[in-house]
Amino acid sequence: MSNTDVSKLAPAAAKQKINIAGLLIEGRAFAALLVIIVFFSLMSPNYLTVSNLLIMSSHVAIYGILAIGMLLVILTGGIDLSVGSVLGLAGIVAGFLMQGVTFNSMGIILYPPVWAVVVMTLAFGAFLGSITGVLVAYMRVPAFVATLGILYVARGIALLITNGLTYNNLGGNDTYGNTGFDWLGFNRLFGIPVSVVVLAILAAVFGIMLARSAFGRWIYATGGNQRAAELSGVPVPFVHVCVYALSGMLASVAGLVLSSQLTSAGPTAGFTYEMIAIAAVVIGGASLNGGRGNVRGTMLGAFVIGFLSDGLVIIGVSAYWQTVFTGAVIVLAVLLNSLQYGGKRF
Amino acid sequence: MDTSVFPAPEAGAAEVVLSARNVAKVFGSIQALKGVNFDVHRGQVTTLFGENGAGKSTLMKILSGVYKPTSGEIILDGETIEFGSSTEARDHGISIIHQELSLAPNMTVRDNIFMGREIRTPYGVDFAEEERQCRLLLSELEENIDPRIKVEDLRLGQQQIVEIARALSVNSRILIMDEPTSALSASEVEVLFKVIGDLKSRGVSIVYISHHLEEALQITDHAVVLRDGNMTAYAPRADIDLEWIVRNMVGEHFNLGSPPTDYTFGDVVLEVEGVTVCDSTGNQRLVDELSLSVRGGEIVCIYGLMGAGRTELLECLAGRLTAETGKVRLYGREITRASIADRIAAGLVLVPEDRQRDGLVQTMTIGQNLSLANLRRLVRGLFTSRRLERDHISNAIRRTTIKAGSPDHLIGSLSGGNQQKVVIGKMWSTNPKALLLDEPSRGIDIGAKAEVFRLLAEGAREGLAVLYTTSEVGECLSVAHRIIVMHKGKISAEFGSDVTKARIMAASGEAVVH
pLDDT > 90: what percent of chain B? Predict the structure, then answer.
């Protein structure tokens, strides 16, 4: 009885030969990250500098935050294609609120303070996600279809609100008392970009939640065998609604961080980011069938993708080739996953 | 290998068409077959007896080309042969009807029967000819099934018939049937046996596997018994009886226990009143206004054939299926509309029939599976307490005598019997008042079976109300105080523990053979 190691509680690592084989397989994303860093450091002297690493990390933060939400959903055996659109719409909602809400009947314009904007945007993301969750859990709509629908709806609403234009000035105005929105994207805590700090905190919170809480175990059980989980008293529909709501909320966090980094919010922000999030989760060793995966792997996956694409930019590879390389990495990751899970279907 | 049981060529015995010589098969560290000799005689039925895990299915898969033997050889018509695949074996006239149906439910009967060997013409598939042949085959099987109907719209028994028709359609010389009757009704079994008779007269050799010993004895010409990967006995039909088979299968006289007696029953724990469960279309009543009650300390067994509604009844009691009518009470408190989680909290739990599909989370460890139903009680603050969980797991392992290297191993590393004990242990550790078990002995060997029944007896002695189902008569007469026979969703008879097998079988609508 040695349940003291967290890695043993995480099903992904719980192969029989936990110590050697498990570590080697689990370490593949880490190895890939090292290879990427070494390769680009040799190619460009600017790659391995503190300032560049911090810049790249703040890019990774967006993917990483999305990927945590995606991981929760994928662990239950679902998929969330809507995160990119929800990210974009969250930025628009924040931008809309920052511009001031006009109440025609009363003839006033209300400028909510930044904290209220953040809270409302997160609540909005969670609400969108819980719609998906209800569709999946109670209406039996396949996750792929439900989230595809939300993908289009959210993107459409974003375009409707803005009429296709971009909210520029998210800096706020001192006279209205709503300044500070750019804090998320620009400021640093102890030299580290706030967005990276946010990612680290979220990763820690959700990592511990998955490994240690009953809710985390319910997520793994739901993805591992929904029928068995149900008969063991796991509230499976509740788990589904929660993971999609959390995914929507995390997409909103990413949307806030992105629009704060840009101090603008465009309706097309986050386009195809859902694919990057899925790729990060898969590279991190999670099974698309559900039940296997963890936050640590997903974080490595996000860094692999982020550091790879930024590295390619730095050494001047064309954007077209970047796409090809990213795709190749994803296919390779899935290949390795199917080796790990021994011929089980993906 | 004990060569003394090796069948000696007898005068007058039918010619041997297919034989296995010293066949062994190793899967990883498990030796599934340890050098087996096995003969198939032309135009005769050879039945393979053995417990689960004795190696029957492995041997059949080797004979039909699904697996390659690790050592030993397969001799077909006097020549050593090696099959690269099951298709190759089929080309040699060997086909197999698997225990699990291998039909595509979304396709028609015709398409299933001709799957992979469609009758092709330059203009596409000749559906009319396929259909004609299908009708011919199905009429031989005395089954009035339209070849254009989708397999998913057929009853399970009819699907089994389609599977059999498919095997017959390739004009096999050797037909391997792995548990072909498990889903068939008594009359369908009769038809099948008639077909087997016809096939024999046409010179087709049949290898038959069944857990239904009485049934197999009806049709077999030779009996071969496997135990732990060894062939332990061989004899022609004339020399054997039921007792001989059981003795050789089990190795010793085995007793599944007797009802625990030295205490009095408590109050009524579980009360079912007029419960009806309908199928997904809502037309057919799977459980038909059924009532029963179980007292604390009492063990009740529900016997019935497949399709009698046993599983549906238990799933309804556990909250998976909704009752159309009727009431379910636990200690007098109505729980008819309660959720599964609420029922578990109230003390009513189900150990499901199919442990792979409904009982276990394969991606989790033994320990995580054991604590899954009890996580709520292990939470301290925000997290599950590791200490409490560890204690909980080791208690469950000790109580249900699970043999596991470490609770951190994946659940799949356990044998079937131990996996079943994990499912039982998981539900038992929620401190239930009433324990429902759907076919708790399915797919586990007789030793594990005896242990499972011993656990039930132990639980009952502690005041637990136990309700289990079985489709093996022998298991009714083990620890149960009371035996309820179900037939077509209703209780057709109720017996005490002193009943005979024949009476139980008669009440279940099963043909009694003497």
Answer: 11
- Could you report the per-residue pLDDT of B135-189, keeping only the tens digit for each? 988 888 777 888 888 888 887 778 878 888 888 888 788 888 888 877 677 777 8
pLDDT of residue B171: 78
Candidates A208, A212, A224; nearest CB to B363: A224
The answer to whether A3 contacts B409, with C-beta atoms less than 8 Å apart, is: no
Q: Measured between beta carbons, which residues in chain B are less than 8 angstroms from residue A220?
A: 361, 363-364, 368
pTM: 0.77
CA A111 – CA B353 distance, rounded (Å): 61
Give the homologous superfamily in CATH for domain B265-347+479-514.
P-loop containing nucleotide triphosphate hydrolases (3.40.50.300)
Positive or negative: CA dihedral B440, B441, B444, B448: positive
**A272 in reach of chain B (CB within 8 A):** no
Closest-CA residue of A relative to B414 is: A16
When scoring A215, A232, A289 by the number of chain B Cβ atoms within 10 A, the one with the most, hence best to mutate, is: A232
The CATH homologous superfamily to which domain B1-93+205-250 belongs is: P-loop containing nucleotide triphosphate hydrolases (3.40.50.300)
A221 closest CB neighbour out of B364, B407, B410? B364
- For the residues B414-435, what does the mean pLDDT come to? 87
User: Order of strands across the sheet with B79-81?
Assistant: B30-41, B16-27, B71-76, B79-81
Instruction: Please answer whether residues B270 and B348 qualify as being in contact, where contact means their C-beta atoms are separated by less than 8 angstroms.
Output: yes
CA–CA min distance A339, chain B (Å): 15
Where are chain A's structural domains?
28-340
Residue B514 has pLDDT above 60, yes or no: no
Assigned token pair, A284? 């991190």
* A77 Cβ under 8 Å from any chain B Cβ: no
Could you tell me what percentage of chain A is helix, strand and coil, using 3-state DSSP and rounding each to the nearest 5? 70, 5, 25
- Domain spans in chain B, listed from the N-terminal domain onward: 1-93+205-250, 265-347+479-514
